[in-house]
Amino acid sequence: MAKSHLFLAALALGAALSTAAQAQDTTAATVVAKVNGVEITLGHMIIAREALSEQYKSLPNETLFTGILDQLIQQTALEQTVSDKLKLTNQLQLDHSRRDYLANVALTEVVMGAVTDEALQAAYDTRFKDYAPQKEFSAAHILVDAEEKANELRGQLDGGADFAELAKANSTDTGSGANGGDLGWFGIGQMVKPFEDAVVAAEIGKVAGPIKSDFGWHLILVKETRIAEKPTLEAMREELASELQNRAIDAHIKAVTEAATVERMADGVDPALLSDTALLEK
Questions:
Q1: Residue 34 forms beta bridges with which residues?
Q2: Is the pTM of this model over 0.90?
Q3: Which pLDDT tens digit goes with each residue over 234-246?
Q4: What distance in Å separates the CA atoms of residue 32 and residue 72, rounded to the nearest whole number?
Q5: C-alpha span between 109 and 212 (Å, rounded)
Q6: Domain 134-228 adopts which CATH fold?
Q7: Cα distance between residue 193 and residue 236, in whole Å
Q8: 229 in the Ramachandran plot: left (φ > 0), alpha (ψ -120 to 50) or beta?
Q9: One-character DSSP codes across 119-132
Q10: What is the DSSP letter of 191?
Q11: Domain ranges of the chain
Q12: What are the CA-CA distances from residue 270 to residues 84, 92, 264, 265 (Å)?
C-alpha cells in the first residue's frame, strides 16, 4: 500500500514538473492552432484577451481560453475567404487602421520618456519660480438679463431676502443658480474683468451691483477671502505631466515631419471631393 502511494505521488510530481517545463518553454510565438496552414499563436490570443472589455477580462482564463481560440479560428477562416478580393474601401480602411496604430505606437514611446521625476521637478520650478501669494475669493452671484430685473432683486435683498433663494429662483446662470449662486473659490484672472473688479472692491458679506458684463447683470456676494498657498508638486503632478507629454509629442512630430521628404501634390483637388464616398467604389 505504501508503495502504491509512493508511485501515485511520483506520477503527480512528474505531471507537475512536466506542466511546469511546458509552461517554461511556452512563448508568445507558441502555435496554438492552424487554419489552412496559417498559424495562430499564444501571442494572438493574449492580444485578443487584452482587447476585451473589463467585464470579460475579469473572467477566469480557463473560461476565456477556448472561447478566444474558437473566435480566432473563425476569424482566420473568414479572413481567408476575402483576403484576395478586397475592395478598394477595405484596403484603404486597413491602411488607415495600420497607420493610426503605428503612429500611436511611436508617440507612446515618446510620452513614456517625457515624464520623469527630474522633468516634473524642473517644470514645477519653472512654473512657480516667480510665485507670489495670491488672494482668492469665495463668492456667489445672481445673473439676470436686464438691469431693471437686477435692481428689483437688489431691492428685495436690501429688504432682507435670502440671496441663495433668489439665485435659485431667478439666476440665468443655471449651473451656479441651482447652488444658490455659489461660484466656489477663484482667483484673479479667472473671471471677466467687470465682475472681477467688483469682487475685488466688494465688502465681505454685503451685496455689490448690479454690475454689467458680457453675460448680463450681476448681483455679487463675496462670502470670504483667503491667501492661496503655492500648490505642491504632487498636487500639480497630473497637470505638469500632461504639459510635458504634449510638449514632447509636438516636438517629436515636428522633428519627424521636418526630417521626412514630403511632396504635397493636392493642388487642384477639389476639397468638396473629401465627402464623396462614391469614389471608393470606382
A1: 39
A2: no
A3: 999 999 999 999 9
A4: 10
A5: 50
A6: Chitinase A; domain 3 (3.10.50)
A7: 27
A8: beta
A9: HHHHHHHHHTTT--
A10: S
A11: 21-84, 86-131+231-251, 134-228
A12: 32, 20, 15, 12
